[in-house]
Amino acid sequence: MARQILGSLNYPLYLIPGNHDDKAHFLEHLHPLCPQLGNDPQNMRYAVDDFATRLLFIDSSHAGTSKGWLTDETISWLEAQLFEGGDKPATIFMHHPPLPLGNAQMDPIACENGHRLLALVERFPSLTRIFCGHNHSLTMTQYRQALISTIPGTVHQVPYCHEDTRPYYDLSPASCLMHRQVGEQWVSYQHSLAHYAGPWLYDENISCPTEER
Fold first, then answer.
1. CA 120, 126, 127: angle at the middle one, nearest 5?
2. In which band, very low, low, confident or very high, does the pLDDT at 208 lie, cut at 50, 70 and 90?
3. Residue 7 pLDDT exceeds 90
4. pLDDT reading at 202 higher than 80
5. How confident is the model at residue 210 (pLDDT cuts 50, 70, 90)?
6. Radius of gyration of the chain, Cα coordinates, nearest whole angstrom
7. Which pLDDT belongs to residue 4?
8. Alpha-carbon gap, residue 158 to 212, rounded angstroms
9. CATH assignment of 2-207?
10. Residues 68-102: pLDDT tens digits?
């Protein structure tokens, strides 16, 4: 079903697996849509260098657990890619966030050795963004120069609970993040996937005062 839906899109697809994916099945069915995934389900990672920002896609999923893990090969590959990219800004896409974000339910199943990625953030000023899934909520933080964000779920959402570790989810409106390269700037914005009324044009006569009183 995923291949059928995604295959109807008319732009390039850059995919990475998450903790709910069987890597072999993921590669078998989605490789035709994203040949950059390669042929080894245990080593799915690739770079896209077609834009003003270098895009690096890595697999943080680990069979048998919801927690994430970055292999030695992945860390070495990232290091080489960042060396090769020089001063060109780089953005990483991965499933698990590499550090705790204060969500009591999700922090225990983040990337267990994410500190190794954070060490690369410290070494390479060009690494300025890391986008993750996993948490089913829009959450943002910053580590050194890098903005780190988890994105909303496209089906269900996970509430941000400070202390309650029970596995809650809800059906608040699904959404996604859209990204644009505007000149030298990377811009991200949230886009709702729910049905809603509008859009309407503002009435300029009521949108702001026209005279000082």
1. 50
2. low
3. no
4. yes
5. low
6. 19
7. 87
8. 46
9. 3.30.750.180
10. 999 999 999 999 999 999 999 999 999 999 999 99
Helix (H, G, I), strand (E, B) or coil at 121: helix
Residue 6 CB coordination number (10 Å): 14
Contact call for residues 55 and 98 (beta carbons, < 8 A): no
Give yes or no for a contact between 95 and 134, defined as CB atoms under 8 angstroms apart: yes
Distances (CA, A) of 187 to 73, 80, 82, 179: 31, 26, 21, 6
Buried/exposed code over 110-136 (b: 16+ C-beta within 10 A; e: otherwise): bbbbbebbbebbeebebbbbbbbbbbb
**Could you tell me the two tokens for 7?**
């295959």
> What type of residue sits at position 93?
F
| pLDDT confidence bin for 13, thresholds 50/70/90 | very high
CB atoms within 10 A of CB 23: 18
Task: Say how far apart CA 103 and CA 136 lie, in whole Å.
Answer: 11
Of 17, 47, 66, the closest CA to residue 127 belongs to 47
Do the Cβ atoms of 96 and 132 come closer than 8 Å?
A: yes
Compute the half-sphere exposure of residue 40: CA atoms within 13 Å on the CB side of its CA. 7
The pLDDT score that the predictor gives to residue 22 is: 94
H-assigned helices in the chain? 2-6, 23-30, 72-85, 115-123, 204-207
